[in-house]
Automatic annotation (TrEMBL):
SMART domains named among the record's database cross-references: HTH_MARR (SM00347)
One Pfam family linked to the record: MarR
PROSITE patterns: HTH_MARR_2
PANTHER family: TRANSCRIPTIONAL REGULATOR, MARR, TRANSCRIPTIONAL REPRESSOR OF EMRAB OPERON
InterPro entries reported in the protein's UniProt record: ArsR-like_HTH, HTH_MarR-typ, WH-like_DNA-bd_sf, WH_DNA-bd_sf
One GO MF term attached to the UniProt entry: DNA binding
Residue ranges of domain HTH marR-type in the record: 8-137
Gene3D superfamilies, alphabetized: Winged helix-like DNA-binding domain superfamily/Winged helix DNA-binding domain (1.10.10.10)
UniProt keywords, alphabetically: DNA-binding, Transcription, Transcription regulation
Record-given protein name: Transcriptional regulator
Native source organism of the sequence: Planococcus donghaensis MPA1U2
CDD domains found in the cross-reference section: HTH_ARSR
Amino acid sequence: MACSFSKQEQILQLFKGLTNQISPKFERCTGISASRYELLYQLYNTDEINQSTLQKAVNIDSAAVTRHLKQLEADGMVTRKRSPADNRVIFVSLTNEGREKIIGYRQENMGFVNQMLHDFKPEEIEHLSDMLSRMQNNISEY
């Protein structure tokens, strides 16, 4: 008995394949993991942020965020400090070196994205963005 996927199932398989390809190629191109890039990007857009708020913004589990931030701190890209009012709260901010690095990573990221969307017309990119946003909303409501 043959098993064939519906068009909808094929779309899911294509997304899984893209995800498996994007992560390692993104890291090779930019020199940083997508998770760390997202953390740095979020920090770039704020002066200082509570670590748990940052974790929710990037939607990465708290243990992974802590590991990433410890490594980024060891690399001199972020600083972490405990709140004097509540020792359980940790505030995170970018260092000047971190700010410079994220600008470079962003340029590499743009090159990666441009290659990924090579030969797409602007209206196709707009349409794809709309469809992916709708899919994301549908999944979050599931």
